[in-house]
Write a structure and sequence with these properties.
Blueprint: H1 4-15, H2 21-57, H3 59-71, H4 73-78, H5 80-111, H6 119-132, H7 141-175, E1 205-208, E2 211-214, E3 236-238, E4 241-243, H8 254-271, E5 290-291, H9 294-300, H10 302-314, H11 324-351, H12 356-374, E6 389-392, E7 395-398, H13 403-407, E8 412-415, H14 423-436, H15 449-459, H16 465-474, E9 484-488, H17 495-507, H18 513-522, E10 524-528, H19 533-537, E11 559-560, E12 563-567, H20 589-603, H21 605-610, H22 623-626, H23 640-649, E13 654-659, E14 661-668, H24 670-682, E15 687-689, H25 694-707, E16 726-730, E17 737-740, H26 749-765, H27 778-794, H28 810-813, H29 816-831, E18 837-841, E19 847-849, E20 858-862, H30 864-875, E21 878-881, E22 884-888
Helix pairs in contact: 2-5, 7-8, 11-12, 14-15, 17-18, 26-30, 29-30
Protein name: Reverse transcriptase domain-containing protein
Transmembrane segments: 21-44
Biased composition (Polar residues): 54-64, 250-260
């Protein structure tokens, strides 16, 4: 029963006369097409009227017409036949423009043929579009012969009609001398001329001088001087080459085509020879398919070249009404024609050379020019052709295999010229659609690593976060990883040798070749700053972690309180270059190998974390692999190996810088250094020991960071840790110490940097005097102000004595309440002026007032948030000293980013 009901319903529908659904679609599609065609015709007619109105209303054309009418009345009265011939040429130009409009309408009609469901109609329309497309790229001999015969027959018939029409009209006008008056003529001597039609009007039939001129549409042929399917070949210089009709052939030999063109020109001259007019506008447009050298074509077709150039120039004024697409296609075809002509000349010149090297180089240049030419244009009619072909002597070759044929010179024909389409262009639309559709992104998980990398090369999939997440989720790797190898500068080694050795090392260990090639392509080898003597010698941070013992018993050096303590410059036998720890030694062979291997192993750490390289593997390079060259040592220079030897001889002692004299190095026993650490931190009442582990302290800090809402202004660094503190001796008294608490590894360092930049800029714009200097150059200006003020107060030149004072332990003596009050006062003073936001450059020192609007590298912070950041940094100052966790209860840490700004100035 379930099958009978639908059949009954279908029978009822047919019996009642209602058309079925497919039949309705078939009936509606032609109606829609007819409507679209009518709209296109109306639009084209309106655009033609507007263009004619603009042409007639332009002052240039009116002035030309008036000037022509002022200096030609005598000539018209003396030679009426010549004036009639000029008038005839103008009407022919109007007819050419109307034909062009009809052809354009036909092209629009062919472009919307995709609306027809009938495949036969679409196939016929596609065949017509192919015949109308660039014919010099499809040299079909049979079609060429048929088109030539058709064009010759049409030309003869139209020449006969024009000659008869001109004779008849001339007789009528001479018999009736009196007519409508015109400027510069008397009414008795002026012949009657029919009213001139506007250019661009589209009519199917028009009566001209009593003769009925019918329009005929040719497929693949058109009036000379007009466009052939929106293209035009004119005798002008395009891309540095001369393009003319003598370069254009349709699979015919040179002598036959030249004879045919010569015969056509003679027939044109004979057709209107009685009236003495110039050659008519109507002529056959040859197609460009055969490439010949300039010397061969110019010698035999000089006459046709000049005439084609004149006809092309006549139609130049009407070419602008077609559209931008036609002009772009015409320019590209002219450029290709010029380049093919130059390539043909290259091939002929190559054939006549005897020198093999010169011949090869010229051939290579010709091949490169040919490749560039073939990539310029690819018409829709040739998309089905997989490769370009050429023909010579009746035999066809693939263009990629025709190097020897081109080298032999002579005449050859290009067939199916196409531009090779890259794989990325073929699949780009598919990949973009896959990424834009959220419901299709799951298909990315089904892709292999090769497909993901290929997609990344097409649309940069992995550059976006979602692409990287898919790569990490499925494969556990990030293909966007960049290997950066920072090697200290070494004049005896070249970076390319390091790159070459690293490339070989990676390819031997990463099995996936595509991924390995991508990583090698993104690998960078850069020069880093050369290590100084201080970087090699100083080791005070190693002795600040816990309890130490005395190791100075075997050293014969000056002592203080029974332990070694001496400046490095006071030790005998050490070269003077080491007295200043800022100097740079020359890297030797042993030191160069160590530094390069260390830099390479540091650069491949991301690959080890992703599992591409085993954790136990390490890079070990040798000097002979890197082609190392020993640099020349000048007087006073030392090798890095010598500095390391000095450090090795003082092994077990603490080598640290000296405060206020960074170039000096202090050598002392670890016991003295440990005593200074305990005095400055553990026994100081400003610090309190915390009975918690480092991980617990970090978790508590992170919770307070989120509660204060600072995370929306600055991110918390999950990789950060508590900083290690250390002490350095003062230059005046080596027994006194200065505490240093670095903050480069503090998890909240980003918030401290924002606070420091904001407060320094706000102090600069607050408009009150204070002691904060924004740079060393500002010191001179401040001293000049002080001198001027002292002179004004004393009334005469007075002596001013300058004294410097040092506040003992100033960083640990600043009360937290005073610091908070100072920041609050500064924020309130600027808010009273209407300022609420401050913009901070993430990388750099630029700061402005206002709110950013998505600019790259800028971050906006509310001024109220500065109070919250200040309170958090003061209440959560934790660090490690002597292996224990300490908290600073009073003051600010020396070495922190926020401590660079002095805000206590009221």
């Amino acid at each position: 029963m379930s099958n009978q009901r639908p059949q009954a319903l279908r029978r009822h529908g047919r019996a009642s006369g209602q058309p079925s659904t497919p039949l309705r679609c078939i009936l509606c599609v032609p109606l829609a097409v007819v409507g679209v065609l009518s709209i296109c015709a109306i639009v084209l007619s309106l655009s033609g009227k507007n263009s004619n109105a603009a042409w007639l209303s332009s002052p240039t054309n009116l002035s030309d017409r008036s000037a022509r009418s002022q200096h030609r009345p005598d000539e018209r009265s003396q030679r009426p036949k010549e004036w009639l011939e000029e008038r005839l040429e103008e009407m022919l130009e109007e007819r050419a423009l109307r034909s062009e409009r009809l052809e354009r309408l036909a092209e629009v009609e062919n472009q919307i043929q995709f609306l027809f469901p009938d495949r036969e109609k679409s196939a016929r329309s596609e065949q017509k579009s192919e015949e109308r497309s660039v014919q010099f790229l499809l040299p079909d001999k049979q079609r060429s012969e048929r088109s030539e015969e058709t064009s010759e027959r049409i030309e003869r018939s139209e020449r006969t009609e024009r000659s008869e029409s001109s004779e008849k009209r001339a007789g009528q006008m001479v018999a009736k001398p009196q007519g409508r008056g015109r400027e510069g003529f008397s009414s008795a001597s002026q012949p009657e001329v029919p009213e001139r039609k506007h250019k661009g009007t589209v009519e199917h039939n028009q009566r001209e001088g009593g003769q009925q001129v019918s329009r005929q549409r040719l497929i693949g042929q058109q009036v000379s001087g007009q466009r052939v399917s929106g293209q035009q070949v004119s005798s002008q210089r395009v891309s540095g080459h001369r393009v003319s009709e003598h370069n254009v052939r349709e699979g015919q030999s040179t002598s036959q085509q030249g004879a045919r063109n010569h015969t056509d020109e003679e027939e044109r001259d004979d057709g209107l020879g009685s009236s003495g007019s110039s050659p008519p506008v109507v002529s056959r447009r040859p197609s460009l398919s055969s490439v010949k050298s300039p010397s061969e074509s110019s010698s035999s077709h000089g006459r046709s070249v000049s005439k084609s150039g004149s006809s092309a120039s006549k139609s130049g004024s009407s070419s602008g009404s077609i559209g931008v697409t036609s002009e772009s296609i015409a320019s590209s075809s002219n450029s290709i024609a010029g380049r093919l002509e130059s390539i043909a000349g290259m091939s002929n010149s190559i054939a006549g050379r005897s020198d093999s090297e010169t011949r090869t180089s010229a051939l290579d240049s010709a091949a490169r020019a040919l490749n560039e030419t073939l990539k310029m244009l690819r018409s829709p009619a040739q998309r089905r052709s997989p490769m370009s072909r050429m023909e010579k002597g009746g035999k066809k070759y693939l263009l990629k295999d025709a190097k020897a044929v081109i080298e032999g010179g002579g005449n050859w024909i290009l067939l199916d010229v196409i531009r090779t389409k890259r794989k990325a262009e073929r699949v780009k639309a598919k990949v973009i659609g896959l990424l834009r559709a959220p419901w299709k992104r799951k298909e990315l998980l089904k892709k292999s690593l090769e497909e993901m990398l290929e997609m990344d090369g097409i649309v940069h999939t992995l550059r976006e976060r979602r692409g990287r997440q898919i790569g990490m989720k499925k494969f556990g790797i990030n293909p966007r990883t960049i290997i950066v190898i920072k090697v200290p500068f070494n004049p005896g080694i070249r970076k390319k040798n390091i790159y070459r050795e690293m490339e070989c090392w990676l390819k031997a260990r990463i099995r996936h070749s595509t991924l390995c090639n991508l990583l090698v392509q993104r690998m960078r080898v850069i020069w880093a700053k050369t290590r100084t003597i201080a970087n090699i010698l100083h080791n005070q941070k190693l002795f600040s972690g816990g309890d130490t013992t005395c190791t100075c018993e075997d050293f014969q050096l000056p002592r203080v309180n029974g332990h070694v303590q001496v400046r490095l410059s006071e030790i005998d036998g050490i070269k003077s270059l080491l007295h200043n720890s800022k100097n740079t030694p020359v890297p030797g062979g042993f030191d160069s190998t160590q530094e390069i291997n260390r830099a390479c192993n540091e650069g491949i750490k991301p690959l080890k974390r992703m599992g591409l390289i085993k954790g136990g593997e390490a890079v070990r390079m040798r000097l002979h692999q890197l082609e190392w060259r020993q640099p020349e040592l000048q007087d006073g220079m030392v090798l890095a190996e010598y500095v390391k030897g000095v450090k090795q001889s003082l092994r077990g002692l603490v080598l640290s810088p000296v405060d206020r004299n960074n170039g000096e190095t202090l050598v002392e026993c670890p016991m003295l250094y440990a005593t200074g650490m305990r005095t400055m931190f553990n026994e100081n009442p400003n610090y309190e020991e915390v009975e918690k582990q480092e991980k617990e302290v970090l978790l508590e800090m992170r919770g307070k960071y989120k509660e204060a809402g600072i995370g929306k202004w600055a991110n918390w660094d999950n990789v950060g840790r508590l900083q290690e503190s250390y002490v350095i001796a003062k230059d005046k008294d080596l027994c006194k110490r200065r505490p240093v608490v670095p903050s480069f590894c503090n998890p909240a360092r980003h918030a401290a940097g924002i606070l420091s930049k904001a407060l320094n800029y706000m102090l600069k714009e607050v408009g009150r005097e204070h002691f904060n200097l924004h740079g060393t150059l500002q010191l001179k200006e401040e001293i000049a102000k002080v001198n001027k003020k002292a002179h004004d107060l004393a009334g005469m030149d007075s002596r001013i004595s300058i004294r410097t004072y040092d506040i003992k332990e100033m960083f640990t003596q600043l009360p937290h309440d005073e610091v908070r009050a100072s920041v609050q006062w500064l924020v309130n003073r600027l808010q009273d002026k209407g300022l609420r936001w401050i913009r901070i450059k993430v990388k750099g020192k630029k700061v402005t007032f206002g709110k950013s609007h998505g600019e790259d590298g800028w971050k906006s912070v509310r001024m109220k948030a500065l109070d919250d950041i200040t309170s958090f940094l003061l209440d959560n100052t934790f660090f490690k000293a002597g292996g224990k966790v300490l908290k600073q209860m009073n003051g600010i840490p020396m070495g922190g980013r926020a401590s660079l700004c002095n805000v206590r100035f009221r």
